[in-house]
Amino acid sequence: EVQLLESGGGLVQPGGSLRLSCAASGFTFFTYAMSWVRQAPGKGLEWVSTISGSGGGTYYADSVKGRFTVSRDNAKNTVHLQMNSLRAEDTAVYYCAKKKWAAAGQDWFDPWGQGTLVTVSS
Amino acid sequence: IQLTQSPSSLSASVGDRVTITCRASQGISSYLAWYQQKPGKAPKLLIYGASTLQSGVPSRFSGSGSGTDFTLTISSLQPEDFATYYCQQLNSYPFTFGGGTKVEIK
């Protein structure tokens, strides 16, 4: 069974940093891209970032480009999201999701982890 | 690419046929997925490739469309289908989502 488990969320002050992790199991991790999607309280879904299976390709939403960095450790079946210069508008539940390819095209996000809450507030 | 879902919410009864539409601001071929999300839970994939039902998803769910106009149909609404539904385009980065459609009990 494919499982994704996020961790690392919490309360952080504006301007601060946080590192999220997503531990994966049940599939050949390095052959799949991984993505992060967030959902602000009471709002819809927003794609944040995608990383290719090798880690050589990374993609970001404009809203986080230059502040967030996605990486992966294929030896540990884990993907990370380093979040710097955090703002109040980054407050959200952050989900990781499995995706076959980093490239755009016929693909989908499945499954999703249970999410981890990030709250940016003073 | 912007995705516009309609309606943003609807009230329906068990057994009703429900249709949700998703319109893309430019053509996205069939690179569209639909997800279901229940309160406090992660989204769940229902349909990919605009019309391919994900394994394990009940056959009362169906998707259609290509280019810019897409629909998600629930042929006979069941109690467990009350949730929020999102479309997502995977034609090009950024992988945008529609604003969601909340299906409530009438």
Q: Greatest contact pair?
A: A-B, 23 and 26 residues
Subunit arrangement of the protein = heterodimer
Largest β-sheet summary of chain B: 6 strands, mixed
Kindly report the spatial arrangement of strands forming the biggest sheet of chain B.
2-10-9-4-5-6
How would a textbook summarize the main sheet of chain A?
Answer: 7 strands, mixed
- Rounded radius of gyration of chain B (Å): 13 Å
Low-confidence stretches of chain B: none
Number of strands of chain A: 11
Radius of gyration from the alpha-carbon trace of chain A, in angstroms: 13 Å
Mean pLDDT of chain A: 97
Number of strands of chain B: 10
Structural class of chain B: mainly beta
Q: Give the distance, in angstroms, between the N- and C-terminal Cα atoms of chain B.
A: 33 Å
Question: Please, what is the average pLDDT of chain B?
Answer: 97
Q: Can you summarize this structure?
A:
The complex is a heterodimer of chains A (122) and B (106). With 122 residues, chain A is mostly beta strands.
